[in-house]
Amino acid sequence: MLAFILRRLMQSTGVLFVMSLLVFFGVYAIGNPVDILVNPNADQQDIARAIAELGLDQPLYLQYWHFLTSALSGDLGRSFSTGIPALELIFQRMPATLELAAASMAIAIVFGIPLGLYAGLRPESKLAKGIMAGSILGFSLPTFWVGLMLIMVFSVWLGWLPPTGRGDTVDLFGVPVSFLTLDGWTHLLLPATNLALFNLALLIRLTRAGTREVMVQDYIRFARAKGLSDSRIIGVHVLKNIMIPIVTIVGLEFGSVIAFAVVTESIFAWPGMGKLLIDSINQLDRPVIVAYVLLIVLMFVLINLVVDVLYSLLDPRIRLADSGGTR
Amino acid sequence: MTAAAASGRPPLLRVEGLCTGFPSRAGMLHAVDGVDFSLDRGEILGLVGESGSGKSVTGFSILGLVDPPGRILGGRVLLDGVDLAALDEPARRAIRGKRIAMIFQDPMMTLNPVLRIDTQMIEAVTAHEATGTAQARERARAALVQVGIAAPDERLLAYPHQLSGGMRQRVAIAIALVNRPDVIIADEPTTALDVTIQGQILHEMQALVRESGTALVWITHDLSVVAGLADRVCVMYAGRIVESGPVDAVLDAPRHPYTRGLIDSVPAMNPRGRPLAQIPGNAPSPVDLPPGCTFRARCSRAIERCGDMPPLEAPADEGGGGGDGTRARTVRCWNPVPLPAQGSR
Amino acid sequence: MSAQPASPGPAVAPVPGVQSPLRRFLADFAASRVALGAAVLLAAILFAALFAPLLSPQDPYDLAQLDIMDSKLEPGAKGAAGNTFVLGSDEQGRDLWSAILYGLRISLGVGVLATVVAMALGTLVGLASAWIGGRFDALMMRIVDLQLSFPAILVALVLLAVLGQGVDKVVLALVIVQWAYYARTVRGSALVERNREYIEAARCLALSPARIVLRHLLPNCLPPLIVIAPVQVAHAIALEATLSFLGLGMPITSPSLGLLIANGYTQLLSGKYWISFFPGVALVLTIVAINLVGDHLRDVLNPRLSR
């Protein structure tokens, strides 16, 4: 188990290294780094000083070394527009994005798994067919348009929920969160629902397919022959089996939810790091873009690592594979 | 004849006119079509037939475990005189695993791969009794010892994939035994195992039911297994019982041409060197069963009367009709194989 | 079935039961009413996109034809010149119906173009990877794995942030996002096909590797591509719309559906829903129609699923 984690850790480091090379060449080699890293409004003197400061007059491998060491020490430059270190700016916005992503994952799980379970247990029922048709829509509809329609219906026409912003926040361990205030909840509901739709559809299909596959297994029939109640069979025997792929997908999807939050945050003016990215792109605030890319790559690598480890913990067949079972 | 039957008490398990069907595009598929048999305490009944003869579906029907859209179309399953088919689902569930337990064919598939053995054994106890987990665990441990598993505490903490096939089947048997059921239905539990393990498990099962007085229905396609294990045997063909009786009588002097054919095709039951006989043709499709005797098309003894379905009754030369058709020697044939001449055995 | 007695009548049209593969395919396809409806809808959308200039009452990007007095008219309202705005008008008094038809052209064009280029590139890489094998294969598949581990939207966003706006850049970003799927798919089927007897036979004939790969191997790797291509076109269209909505995709001079929706977004909060709503409906109908047709195509073409 430990060897497995170590091996995966080394792979992840490799991926990070490759990505740092890619970003470095994207920024330094293809584009003109002066354009990218130095504020275009700066005067000639400032530019000359910045070039010297960033070591842009040095050979490429030394530049990469400089880039790598300063990135590792958390220095990814300062935002042009605010002058705040790029990384600090992103960390300020990160809680909002994580909260939105977590809320949307929660919605997808709370509704997706029971609906998928129902559709898998009663595949011929009308409700199940309706659920499946709905899940096809969830896959096909573009997220951003659904977001607009949610605002149109619930904010403009019905006036139930606010269309934009994050609402009141409360500090939880020094981090501002929305979900502890009613106002925060009303602001969170629409964007989280919007962001959840794709994963809701995905979880419904995954749970349904898993349930149908498990229900015809002999061990379910054997469990019934033991006289177990339906709730025990579904709640333990079925769920525990389908949980393994579901946890994997939920984990992996958490990364893409953070990526897709860029769209949802733009629509609902949710002050997260996705909106920060779009704003930075529009303002040509390149250090922030570079910092965002490096950070999101790191997050993806970490998520993949955690999911892999979690997967091997969940499935006894894998968990015990190298600890040597009796067979 | 056992004491219970002689004393006139109702048999422990009695199946009457059981019919189970699966709807299909071509119409209702009658997998089990009017099966009768009965079973006393401590008795071992062999239910023999080819694959598709309806023997497994009979087993599942008794427990009410037929997979939908299949369903029981008619007949009664009486446990101590109570009709299980008429009970509602909660009542039937209370009987499953408690009074009637079942063991399945493939031990690789019957244990849930993601649950530990102790979970799967303890839940079998707590599903029926309000026992504490510790007490249920002790029962589970005892059941494992009973089926001859060494180091039961270690096995309880194992996952199924850590055990060998024979070990898993022993665990499945232990789960069946853990509530001391009145009846165990075993659906070819040794078919998927190595021959040596097969023999061990057969022997152990026999000893276990003898010791505990549990009745056993052993479903198999293998006559030689039945020969060494069962007290009585029912031979099934195309959803019906075609012959039944005490195991020695049926195997020594089969009256139905199908039973005769089955015996002739088992190598161990034939003298070395004699070519094995085989039954010509294939079992009929349950979708369009021919009218009359379903074995007619493959039968060398078929006569004109076989166009009508023969009843299951005692053959004329062994006392003729009468009897309740479930206990005595019976055969479903108009032209049964003649009894061997006395002294030729 | 096959024992059709010779008909004594005059020249009999194709014998029923002995259909050509195409006829059987069409019959199978038409068996699903949903798929048939989607196919008709898709055909109508393609027709509308192709003949947009003929079908639209005005050229939405000829400023001489726009009247600022017609700004933000409701659907069905009459304009200053007495013309009817069936789906309403936008801020600049542009007829939305016309704008949608033109936008459909751009969205479909970009989606199809990007998919075709990505498919060609991916196929090439996949074939080469399977044929050459070894380190080249390992390297290529590492790149594919790496890229596919990040969501398409993120990769495209970052690329466009670096590249800047423009039709060519959007197409490039869509190609980069998509090629890896094709490379992986083609490599998979090429690895299977490579070991078949007909390739052995072609090698024994000492044909040039290029000829074996392109004339023998490639045609046998195409079926899975045909199955994923329509779905990929739908993905590309949705992705382009999303990027354009975020202001990172198409330039103002090439207003795709996504850009139209973005333009209406500011009006949405004041209740003028139609400027965003109708382009969105056109986008959704296009994507759903392509997905339904693609799904059904897969079911019909996949022999394992057919009865």
Structure explained in plain terms:
The complex is a heterotrimer of chains A (327), B (345) and C (307). Chain A is mostly helical and 327 residues long. Chain A folds into two domains: 1-81 and 283-327, no CATH class; 98-276, Orthogonal Bundle (MetI-like fold), CATH 1.10.3720.10. Chain A contains 13 helices and two strands; from the N terminus they run αααααααββαααααα. Chain A has helices at residues 2-30, 33-37, 44-54, 60-72, 86-121, 126-140, 143-157, 182-215, 218-225, 230-267, 273-282, 286-314, 316-319; strands spanning 170-172, 175-177. In chain A, α5 (86-121) runs antiparallel to α6, α10 (230-267) runs antiparallel to α12 and α11 runs antiparallel to α12. Chain A is globular. Chain B has 345 residues and is α/β, with parallel strands linked by helices. Chain B has a single domain (2-99, 181-331), classed as Rossmann fold. Chain B has helices spanning 3-6, 55-63, 89-95, 107-110, 117-126, 133-146, 152-156, 165-177, 195-212, 223-229, 247-252, 257-264; strands at 13-24, 27-39, 44-48, 71-79, 82-83, 100-103, 183-187, 215-220, 232-237, 240-246, 330-331. Chain C has one domain (31-55, 86-305): MetI-like (MetI-like fold, Orthogonal Bundle), CATH 1.10.3720. Chain C has eleven helices and two strands; from the N terminus they run αααββαααααααα. A two-stranded antiparallel sheet of chain C has the order 1-2. Chains in contact: A-B, A-C.
Helical stretch count of chain B? 12
Q: State the helix count of chain A.
A: 13
Largest sheet of chain A: 2 strands, antiparallel
Q: What is the subunit organization of this protein?
A: heterotrimer
The CATH architecture of the largest domain in chain A comes to Orthogonal Bundle
Number of domains of chain B: 1
Shape of chain B: globular
What strand order characterises the main sheet of chain A?
Answer: 1-2
- How would you describe the shape of chain A? globular
